[in-house]
Design goal:
The protein has 251 residues and is an alpha/beta fold. Helices cover 33% and strands 24% of the residues. The two termini are 28 Å apart.
Length: 251
């Protein structure tokens, strides 16, 4: 039974960020700027960064155990960085193949062998298990979550216009949709480009190498945020944090 005496005022939890973008733009460097980060490096992308990091996981269960360790043990970390989602996806597929038999009872070696998209449905259950673990970490340890992914260009079938190409996460479409729905901010990192037109009418893109974050959905890319971020800001954590802090004060 509901009772008005049970009503409480909600408080804002740390952000759940999905950061994706073109190769080499500085996604991992951005994540390293977040408060007191601990990295879970599914791929070897740390380069010369000096950050605290778990050993590189060899299987999906290693990832789950690392998150459980942060939930269960005392520590001073304020951000978990999972780098990257698209390198984690094959580990999830391998885990499904190892633990979920085909409906006819035999073991499969590849996710496609379940047939009719059933393997990806099994994988989605594991993605949701991962997200529940990340939410528990966020709620019990008050930690921000940053998940990193690479981008890919896909053909988007719009019900309102002709099909067009756009950037999105380099994941199976069901995982991409589920993770983006879960996140508080989906941020697309790319170089700032201006389109100029020559005297002959030919258009070309020019830029100075400025690294930018796109924070709102556009035809060219998937993005969103719940913090009233400007549509385009520099690829620097403090630029994002300023708006999150302002949002907390208003609430």
């Amino acid at each position: 039974m509901f009772d008005l005496q049970s009503i409480e005022r909600s408080s804002q939890l740390p952000p759940r960020v999905v950061l994706y973008g073109v190769p080499g733009i500085g996604k991992t460097t951005f994540a390293a700027q977040m408060p007191a980060p601990i990295f879970l490096p599914v791929e070897d992308g740390l380069g010369q960064l000096e950050v605290d990091t778990f050993p590189r996981p060899l299987c999906f269960q290693d990832v789950i155990e690392a998150i459980s360790t942060l939930i269960q043990q005392d520590h001073s970390y304020e951000t978990l960085v999972l780098d990257s989602l698209d390198k984690l996806e094959p580990l999830i597929w391998d885990h499904v193949c190892e633990t979920v038999p085909h409906e006819r009872g035999h073991k499969v070696e590849r996710i496609e062998q379940y047939g009719y998209g059933k393997g990806y449905a099994h994988a989605l259950s594991e993605w949701r298990r991962l997200l529940r673990g990340l939410d528990m970490l966020r709620e019990t340890k008050n930690m921000a979550i940053c998940t990193i992914a690479h981008s890919t260009v896909v053909r988007f079938e719009s019900p309102e216009t002709d099909a067009y190409e756009r950037y999105q996460l380099r994941l199976h479409k069901s995982a991409d949709a589920t993770i983006c729905d879960w996140a508080d901010a989906v941020l697309f990192a790319n170089y700032k480009v201006a389109v100029v037109e020559s005297s002959t009418g030919k258009k070309r893109g020019v830029g100075k190498g400025e690294r930018m974050l796109h924070t709102n959905e556009r035809p060219a890319f998937r993005a969103k945020n719940r913090y009233s971020l400007p549509g385009q800001i520099p690829l620097v954590w403090d630029e994002v944090a300023n708006f999150i802090c302002t949002n907390e004060e208003e609430n």
